[in-house]
Amino acid sequence: MADLLALSVFGVDWQLLKPFIVIGLAFGGVYALSGVGLVVLYRATGVLNLAFGAIGAAGALIAYWLINHTSCPDWLAFTVCVLFGGVLNLVYGVIFGPAFARRDPLVKMMGTLALALILLGLMGWRAPAGGAFARFLPLPSSEHHYFIAGTSVNLTQIISVALALAITIAVTIFLRVTRLGTAMRALANDREITATLGVPVRRVEAVAWFGSGLACGAAGLLLPDLLTSLDYSALTFLVISALAAALIGRLQSLWVTFLGGMAVGLAQAVVTPYASVTAYRAAAPFVLAIVALLVLSRHRVVTISRAN
């Protein structure tokens, strides 16, 4: 009797939801990882990179081509996918970053949107979708399954959450204890004053572009395995959920961004088995971001009024 009550608390069939919770946490890990990458770049350069998903998708297609059309080992193709994200992001930042440095945030954002559209067009040209042809980029980790709380979990899903958590911890420590991380935080506060203090602004920004690009590549590698399909359009629009996570963190807090990404993944997954609301699951990132911004803004106003 107790077991039946535990499985149906408040009318929710937890046994039915368990697999979807696992899937939601796995996708949430990718969203959290991507959101952290967006926040780090934004804090250092003021650029909100809308090309995040497209860069990861392009890297995944390159890895797919290397595996299926050359004798390249799988591990090397996966490495190329991650490094491609870092290098392309870095090249874009080095070329266009200085020109955008003093422009409005909206102009910077539109510049990255142009990159996303260019990449999407190139992928559509060189790797057209449609018909019966489908691309897959499975990771060896997806073949390893474990049972946790009575639910099957594969290693890719575990890696997704663990990697997001590890990167959030590592970036937090990096920003707090290293000279380069301190310079990044100073740039986020005031670029002009930081430059006058002798901080190598271009070098610091280049590190931010490259590090954020590596996160692009990692997300582009994990997501096709979780989706069980290399759909470059779906990967390109990953940036929507990642952006929602970053907005929940107010483009500042890495840990709130991490939690926001996990929440977005869970929210999208747990409504899937319910036909009445599953059609609206795509709206989950926006709803959560709006609610979080409203709540956090209200908290900030109360705090300031008390301080006065």
Q: What can be said about this structure in brief?
A:
The chain has 308 residues and is mostly helical.
Structural category is mainly alpha
Unreliable segments (pLDDT under 50, ≥5 consecutive)? 1-11, 301-308
Order of SSEs, N→C?
Answer: HEEHHHHEEHHHHHHHHH
Domain unit count: 1
Overview of this protein structure:
It contains 14 helices and 4 strands. With 308 residues, the protein is mainly α. The chain has a single domain, classed as ABC transporter involved in vitamin B12 uptake, BtuC. The chain has a two-stranded antiparallel ribbon. The chain has a two-stranded antiparallel ribbon with strand order 3-4. A hairpin with a 2-residue loop joins β1 (8-9) and β2 (12-13). α2 packs antiparallel against α12 (254-270), α11 (238-248) packs across α12 (254-270) and α12 (254-270) runs antiparallel to α14 (284-307). It starts with a helix and ends with a helix.
Secondary-structure blueprint:
Elements: H1 2-7, E1 8-9, E2 12-13, H2 14-45, H3 52-69, H4 74-100, H5 105-126, E3 145-148, E4 151-154, H6 155-177, H7 179-189, H8 191-196, H9 201-227, H10 232-236, H11 238-248, H12 254-270, H13 275-278, H14 284-307
Antiparallel strand pairs: 1-2, 3-4
